[in-house]
Write the C-alpha cells for this entry.
Amino acid sequence: MKLTKHLRTRMVLLVLGTGLFYTALAAMSGEAPVGVVSDSRGNTAGLAEGETPWWPSRYGADDQIGSLNEITPEVTRAACALVRHGRVVDLGRILDEDTPKFPGRYWHQTLDVTPHYENLRRTDSGGQGWGKNQINWITEIQAGTFQVGTQLDSIGHIQSGERFYNGWTTRDLVQSNGLARFGMETVPPVITRGVLLDVAAYKNVARLPAGYVITREDVDGTLKHEGLALRAGDAVLFHTGWGGLWGDDNAQFLSGEPGPGLATVQWLYDQHIAITGADTWSYGPVPGEDPERPFLVPQTMYVKLGLFGLENLTTEQLARDGVHEFLFVLTHARTRGSTAAVVAPAALY
Amino acid sequence: MKLTKHLRTRMVLLVLGTGLFYTALAAMSGEAPVGVVSDSRGNTAGLAEGETPWWPSRYGADDQIGSLNEITPEVTRAACALVRHGRVVDLGRILDEDTPKFPGRYWHQTLDVTPHYENLRRTDSGGQGWGKNQINWITEIQAGTFQVGTQLDSIGHIQSGERFYNGWTTRDLVQSNGLARFGMETVPPVITRGVLLDVAAYKNVARLPAGYVITREDVDGTLKHEGLALRAGDAVLFHTGWGGLWGDDNAQFLSGEPGPGLATVQWLYDQHIAITGADTWSYGPVPGEDPERPFLVPQTMYVKLGLFGLENLTTEQLARDGVHEFLFVLTHARTRGSTAAVVAPAALY
Amino acid sequence: MKLTKHLRTRMVLLVLGTGLFYTALAAMSGEAPVGVVSDSRGNTAGLAEGETPWWPSRYGADDQIGSLNEITPEVTRAACALVRHGRVVDLGRILDEDTPKFPGRYWHQTLDVTPHYENLRRTDSGGQGWGKNQINWITEIQAGTFQVGTQLDSIGHIQSGERFYNGWTTRDLVQSNGLARFGMETVPPVITRGVLLDVAAYKNVARLPAGYVITREDVDGTLKHEGLALRAGDAVLFHTGWGGLWGDDNAQFLSGEPGPGLATVQWLYDQHIAITGADTWSYGPVPGEDPERPFLVPQTMYVKLGLFGLENLTTEQLARDGVHEFLFVLTHARTRGSTAAVVAPAALY
Amino acid sequence: MKLTKHLRTRMVLLVLGTGLFYTALAAMSGEAPVGVVSDSRGNTAGLAEGETPWWPSRYGADDQIGSLNEITPEVTRAACALVRHGRVVDLGRILDEDTPKFPGRYWHQTLDVTPHYENLRRTDSGGQGWGKNQINWITEIQAGTFQVGTQLDSIGHIQSGERFYNGWTTRDLVQSNGLARFGMETVPPVITRGVLLDVAAYKNVARLPAGYVITREDVDGTLKHEGLALRAGDAVLFHTGWGGLWGDDNAQFLSGEPGPGLATVQWLYDQHIAITGADTWSYGPVPGEDPERPFLVPQTMYVKLGLFGLENLTTEQLARDGVHEFLFVLTHARTRGSTAAVVAPAALY
C-alpha cells in the first residue's frame, strides 16, 4: 500500500511537471504554438518537372482512404456470397529478423521472461508464480518498422518531393509520433472480392523475370484465361511466381522483381478497383520502366491516385489450387500515425 | 558501384565471422549444442497445490491452436452466409503511446523522415527527392510489446508456474527471439460466426461494475433475450459497457473490470466455442472470484483449456445497433514467436 | 554442426541479396548514387532575418570538435596536477524511465533473461546453465534516445533553420543511421581543469529562480568570491541550485530553469573555455531573455560558436564541500552519428 | 493553453488509473506484494558439481563493487601524478550496427529529424524553425543492448546457475526494468593507474592465436620486459594483438580469441588489482582451457571474485608507442539496473 501511494505521487508530479513545461513553452510566444494545423494544399510549391497538381483526388479534397472508398456494402455483401466451401488460405508470410528486408529496415524481437522471476518474491507467491494458481506470463519487446514482411502500406508512406496524396506536405503531416493524416488508424478493414491474376500461368512460366513489365494485354489475357472480369471494389492480386524465391534464394528475391507497369496500374485505377498487391517485395517492375524515375509505380499509386497496395503476399497456394476468385479479408493493427501494418490477409472460397 | 562491393564484402565477412563463432562454440562440447529440443511433457514437476496434469489437451498432445480447431470449413461457410447488408463494424481501438496499458508495458513510435534528406544528395536526385519523379518515403521506428491495445493473445502468453498449454515448460519453449511453440505465426486467420452477448443490456445497466462475475445464468438470460443459441466454433464477445471508460476515465478503466467467471468460461469451453473476448483490458472479473488466485480465468483459458481470448474490443457500436449475430473476421500479423498481436477484428452483417 | 552450416548459408544468402539489391538500385541511375557527399557551405540559403554566415568557425572550416580544441596536452597535464587528495565526485544522475525528460523523449530498458532458459536445453547443459560450470548471463534491451539524463550534447544536436556549426546543412549531414559529421564518435575524451561557479552561494540563495539570467557580473563576482580566474581549456560548471528539485519536485524542475545569459556565454567563449554545463535540464535561462527566440543560448553555443555543453550535472556535493577547482574527466560511448551521449563525468581533487 | 490543459488532464487520469490498478492488485492479497525483497544468500541451492559457496565476498556480504574497492584515494592520487605530457589516448572503438557482435545481440540507431517539420507549423515559427532564431534539433532513437562494442560489464552480467556475486540469485535481483543490485548506476568512475601488458610484444608476435592461454609466466615475463610491477588498485590491460582483426577480418575476430587463463586471473585477483581488460570481444581464451566449462574465466571473475572486466579495448596505439604505464580514466552512463555500459576509456601519460 505504501509503495502504491509513493508510485502514484511520483507519477503525478512527473506529469504535472510536463504540464508546467508545456505551459512555459507556450508562454514564450504570443499564442499557443503546439498543435496548430498547417495546410499547404493551396499552393503548388516544389512540383517535379512537368508535374501538375494532382489534387483534389477523385474522392474529395479531405479524403484519406482513396481507393478503399470503392468498397461499398453491396460490394462486401456480394463478396461474402462467393464463399462456397469455407476454405481459408493465409496470404501472409511469417516475419522475423531474418526475413528479407529493404536495405536499412530492421525488426528485432526479444522475449520478456522477467515476470517469472518477479512473481516469485511476492509475499503471496505460490512458489513458482503469483498466487496459489502460480500465474506467470511472458511478453516481448519488439523494435523496428512496420515496413517489413507482408505489409499493407498507408498511402502516406510515399511522397513526390514533399507532397502526399491530396496535396498535403510533410510540413502539414509529419509529427514525431506519427503522420497527422493517412496513419493506419484511418484505414478500415478491407473485405471485398479478391481476384488472383496468375500471370505466370498465363505466360506459362514458373516465374516472371526481374524487371518484367506486366502489361494491359497481360492482364486482359489472364482475365480471359481465368474467365473473370474486374469490378469496382475488387482486390486485385498478382501471382508472378517471384515469391517462390522467398526463403529459398533471398539474394535473388531482393535483386529486382516483375510487376505491373504504369499504364496497367492506371487502367486498374480506371476500373475503380479498391486495392492491388503482389508476391514481390515492392509493387511494380524493378528495374522500372523509366531508369530516371525509380519506383514510379507505387509512387503514382499512393501519391497521385490514392490506390492502396500490398507487398510480399503468399499467392502460391491459390495459384496451385487454381483459385482465382474469392472473398478477400484483411484486418490490421490500428496504430496511430503508422505508415504501414504488418499483415496476413486471408482468401476464402 | 564501389560502395556496393565494399558493403557486400563487409557483410559477408561479418556473417562468416558469426558462422565461425558458432562453430567454435559447438567445438567446445561433444556434440552440436544449439537447437536441441527439450520436451518436459513427460514429467509433472512444479504443479501447484491440488493441480493435476491438464495435458494432453482435447485437441491432441502436439496441438498448438486449441479452440481454434473448432472452426471447420462448414462453420466458416455458414458464418459468411450471415452477411445480408455488407455492413462492416471495426472492433479495434486505436493504439498509441497514451492508450491505457497494463503497468510496465509500453509502446513508442517515431517517424523516420531521414530519406527526405538522404535522397537530396544522390547524384540522380530530382531536387526534392530521388530521380526525376522526386520520390521520397517515410517509415517509423516502433518499440514496445504487442501485449497492448486491442489484442489477440497467443495461448503461450500465460503459464502456471513454468507450464504452458499441453504441458510444455519454459525450458522447452523460451528462446531469445520468441516462443518455440504457440507464437503468433501458428495462429490462423479467425473467420467464424460472432455472437455479441450484451450482458449490460440484459441487466439493464450502462456498465457492469468492476469485479462483477458474469454467471452461467447471465449468459443463458442474455442469449434468450437475444434469441440466439451458441454453436461450436463461435466467437463469443461480451459487451459489459466497461469499455465506455476507455479514453474518458482511464483511471477507472484500469482499476478493475467485470467479466465471465470461471464456471462460465468452463461452460463456454464445453460448448466448443472457438474464441471469446470482451470490452475490458483483461478477460474475467478483476478483482477475481478467488482473492488468492489472481487472473485465474485467463490462466485457465490459455494454459488448461487452450481457449483463445481477445481484449479491449470496441463493442459499443454493435451493442447500440442491436447486432448480436454476425460474421467475425480477424487477420493478424504473423510475427514469429510473439505472445500476442495488436489487432482490430471486424464484424460483418 | 548441421545448424551452424544452415545458419551460415542462410546469412550469406541474405547478405548477397542485399548486395544485389544495391547493385540494382545503382543500375537505375547513371552513376553510383549512394554515399555521395553534399556540401552546402558555399551558399547561404535560409539564414534567419538579420543572420549572417557564422562559418568558417574559429577552429577551421572542417573542424568538428569546436571548443574542445582548447584542451591542449599542457592544459590536461596542468589539470592532473590539481589532484591532491585523490577524491572522486560523480557528477552524473542515475537514468531510468522515470527520470524527468524533455517532452516526447523516452528511455525504456527491459532485462533479457532468456539465456537462463536457453542454456538449460543444450546437450552439454550442467543442469542449471551451459557447461559443467553452469554459466548463464543476462543482458538488456534498451530503447530511447541519448538526449536524456546527464548528457553531453554533440554540437550537431541543434540547428538554425537547416544549418549546423560550420555551415553544413541537414541535406549534407542527415543519414538514417546517424549524423555524417559531429556524431559522438568524433568527440574526444574531455580531461581538463574544472571550475565550479557556485552562483547560488554567491547570491546567497539555495536556488536561483526559473528564468534567472546569470550575468557577466555574476560570473565575475563568483570567481572573485572563489578566488579563481578562468583559463583557456577550462570546463566551467554552474551550480544554480536548480538541480535540487530533481526527484523532489520534477514538476517544478521541468517548468523552467536559471542559466547563463547570451552575453555571458559569448564572454566564456572569448575566454576560450572548452566546455560548460549546469545542474539544469537545458543550458541557459528558461524562459529566455528574448521571448521570440527560444533556447537561443544553446543554439548560439552549438551552431554559431561550437561551444560544447553539459546538462543535468549533479553539482550538489562539490558545492556543499566548497570544491571549486578540480580535475574534470569525462569519457563517453563512441556511438557513430549520435547527437548525444548519456554520461556521468567525475571531478577529482 | 487549451491543449496544455487537455494534455495535463489526460496524463493525470492515466496516472491515477495506474495507481488504482496497483491498489487493486495489492487488494487481491493479504499484504502489499510488490517490492518485497528476496534474499537467497542464506541457502546454497543449485550449486554446480564440486562448487562450494563463494560468498560472502572479500569485500563484504553486501558489497556491490567488488575489486573497484581497491581504488583508494591514495591510488587515484598517485595515478594522476603519472601524467607528464598530458597526452590522451582513446581506448574505445566506434560502435554502430555493423560492428562485430556476440551472436543475437543488436544495436540500431535512427535519427529523429521530425522536429524540422513540426517546428515549421508553429504560429511563432521563423520560417525554417521555431522562433525568430529558427531553432531546430535532431535526436536519435536507439534500440539494442549495452553488451556490445567496447564495454564495461557489471559483475551482475554473468551467473553460475541462478547465482550471482555474493550469493544473490535471479529470484532476488531480476526486475523487468533492470537488476535490483549490480546495475551500472552502482559502478563508480574508475580512475587509477593503468598498466598495459603487451604480451604480443613479449612473445614477439603481431597477434597471439585464438585459444592461446596467457599464463602467469607470460605476465611475469611481460612485466619484467616492461620494467613494471603490479600494485593494488591497478587497471591491467592486455594487448594480445587480436584487436587488429576488428574491421579487417571480423570473421576471424569473432571465431575465438587469446586471453589470460584461470590461474592468471586468480593471481591478478591476489594482487588486488581493480579491473582488467583486453583487445578481445570477451575476456579469457576461446576456446577455453576446459572444453566442458565455457567462458569459465569471466564467470569466475564476475561471479566468484567480483573482479571487473573490459572488452574490445583499442590498445594498438599504446602498444605502438610503448606506453605501458599511465593514468586510466573511465566514466560511464549511470543507467539503472543495466548489465553493462558502452564505454571508451582513456589513457593519459
